Amino acid sequence: MTKPFRLTRPEPLEAQVLKAVLRALELHPLVAKAWRINTGAGKLVRKNGASQWINFGVVGGADIWGHMTDGRALYVEVKRPSGDVSPEQNDFIMQAKKVGCVAFIARSADDVMTNLMRVKNE
Question: Please, are residues 80 and 101 in contact by the beta-carbon 8 Å criterion?
Fold first, then answer.
């Protein structure tokens, strides 16, 4: 049995959403600076041939770290519209909010504007 044909708008890739979110943060007057932070592991090879595995980043850490013009830390987890947030990512965002940081999940540049408007009105 074949699936019925459905014409739907293609969903943006997470890399496209990330680019739009970073641009929105760069232009927003409440954001002083924001950076893309990578998490992962890799093999470090030295000139003498010795090597070792290194981990970098924070498990569950947000995709974007930065700071607001008022001095608060900023953390943004970026997901494509249908992307799932891991329990570790959710915990990271919740803990950051709990201690007064600006932290949220963005699935579009509009989410940046919505969340930062809330911050402005607090």
Answer: no
CA distance linking residue 107 with residue 16, whole number of Å:
10
Q: How far apart are CA 26 and CA 19, in angstroms?
A: 11
Would you state the pLDDT for residue 1? 64
Give φ, ψ of 19 to 5 degrees: -60, -45
Tokens of 40: 């992962």
pTM across the whole model: 0.84
Host H or E run for residue 54: strand 51-56
What single DSSP character describes residue 119?
H
| C-beta atoms surrounding 43 within 10 Å | 8
Q: What are the pLDDT digits (tens) for 31-89?
A: 999 999 988 888 889 889 888 988 888 889 999 999 999 999 999 999 999 999 999 99
Tell me the backbone φ, ψ of residue 47, rounded to 5 degrees: -60, -30
C-alpha 24/C-alpha 20 separation (Å) is 6
- Asked if 86 and 112 count as a contact pair (C-beta separation under 8 A), the reply is no
